[in-house]
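Protein phosphatase 1 regulatory subunit 21
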Amino acid sequence: LASLIFQLRAQNQVLKKGVVDEQANSASLKEQVKMKDQSLRKLQQEMDSLTFRNQQLAKRVELLQDELALSETRGKKNKKSAESSSQLSQEQKSVFNEDLQKKIEENERLHILYFEADEQHKRLEAELRTRLQVLETDAAQHQAVVDGLTRKYTDTIEKLQNDKAKLEIKSQTLEREAKDCRLRTEECQQQLKNLQAALGSRLEESLCIINEKVPFNDTRSNRYNALNVPLHNRRYQLKLRDLAGQALAFVQELVTALLNFHTYTEQKVQIFPIDSATDTISPLNQKFSQYLHENASYVRPLEEGMLHLFESITEDTVTVLETAVKLKAFSEHLASYLCFLRKILPYQLKSLEEECESSLCTAALRARNMELQRDMKRLTAVFEKLHTYISLLALPSTKPEGLLRTNYNFVFTNIAASLHGFHDILQDISKHYSQKATLEQDVPTATQKLITTNDCILSSLVALTNGAGKIASFFSNNLDHFTSSLSYGPKAGTEFISPLSAECMLQYKKKAVAYMKSLKKPCADSVPYEEALANRRVLLSSTESREGLAQQVQQSLEKIAKLEQEKEHWMLEAQLAKIKLEKENQKLKNSLSGHLTETIQERSVLPNVAEQKKEMTEKSPREPIKSTSLAPDVDCREDLIKNHYMARIAELTSHLQLADSKSVHFHAECRALAKRLSLAEKSKESLTEELKLASQNITRLQDELMTTKRSYEDQLSMMSDHLCSMNETLTKQREEIDTLKMTSK
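Predicted structure tokens:
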């Protein structure tokens, strides 16, 4: 605000000075205008007097001319008299003529002066009027600026007065806050002294305990530091898995295109320059075709190796070059495919030379074949480069001394360059082969099968070129990510970690993950302490423990099975007895039915008796006729035997149950005593573990004490810095308030 007021005042002074200067200039110009008006009036008066004098002279000239005319007329009449007076009139005429000539010259001079004075006056008047208009417009503009500045200054003055009042209030509040801060700083200093004293004593104790208890610091040794588990970056793992999935898709496209290219090349060798269907092809092309037929066994493993590498990259693991073991298998598959390319390269070159030597080959076709020979050599060289660099990337998982971390960026950059070179070579092959195919179509012996095969080869080359371009651009776009993230090293680690230490680190990581998962399990609802003690006493003193009850249930099930077997036995016995009883009853029924038939035959005379006999015969098989003497005795004997055996079985089962219950009781007591003993041993072990945890907690608290001490020291330093900054701001605000007071005064 003070600087703004100072700037406004300086501008106001400059504007005031400019306005005063303009007013002075306008006043001087007004004086000049007045003086010019006065001189103009004088010149006007002189002009008027000259015009009046001129008129008088003109009248006098006219009179003289009239007199001259009269004298001439008179002279004609009286020449004689005129001759005498001619001398006198001639003298007068000469005098008049001289006088007239002077007057005419004077009149001309006055006319010239008047015209010049009039022109100068008009020009000066026009200049003064234009200057007056300019000055009036400037004055109006300056007046508008002055009015605007006055309004602005009044507004700023009012605003500054309000700000001054606010700043006064704020300064008062800041003074109060400063007093509070001084009191707080005194309290904090006192607390700091107390804390320093307390933390100093604790620090000595902690240092003594650390020196006595802590055996070593694993971060000091690179061998042990390499085993520390790094921080898990889930986003990085997901990103890397996504990149591996994209690379797998690109490799699958390349594998499909390579399979098609080798297969269609095999078909081409079979039909050009000699068709195997009509004639025998050369032994060279036969061998070449045989090798090309084996391309799937070399190309397919590339896709499988990349798939295994993708499956090894999961969300839970740490994916770096030291842990990427599957990269070695992919490198081996690429080496086998490279051997395949080296094996078929001389046959391919010789096959192209054989095409050139045939009578159907033209000069242009021979040139295309030579270009394809160079392209195939370059293609094999590019695959050799790729295999070299990928085998270098596989070294950290097997031989860590083979590749240093500083060379990671170099290897990845060269892989990207090799992929771009691979794409360029495929573009050249596609272009040269398309030219070769167009030339082969013009051959007189070209068949539809040859044209179709050439089209298939061109389509496979286009797919191969597109796939190579995609994977090259993909690798170049993610080159920074590969070079920055695939170099794992623990904190304060300087040496390269070995694959064995990386494997141990992954095992430790799995254990840590399992431990964290176990910590994340929800805790069961806790039981009050007193109720838990009561339940524990009941559990320890009760004979109906879970295992005892399970054993009792098992024994009861065995008893039920035995009883079921006995029941089935007695059911069989009862069925046998029932069958015997039915046989005895059948015998009695047969004897009684024979006796009744004899009596009925004797009385068969009467029809009514016959009908009754018929009814009795119909009822006889349905309702057995009871014997009056034997049946009751048999039933009574069976009931007595049955009741006797049932009572005996009940008595024996009761004795057996009593014995079983006593044995179970004694067994449960024995198990309860054994359980008490095991619980006592477990409680002893838990107490020892708690003792160890308590000692560990003591060390942890001592470490926390050190950290809290450092944090308190940092906080106190920050508070002191904050107080210093507040004091500086207060002094600055006081200075501003003083300046505002001075400016307001």
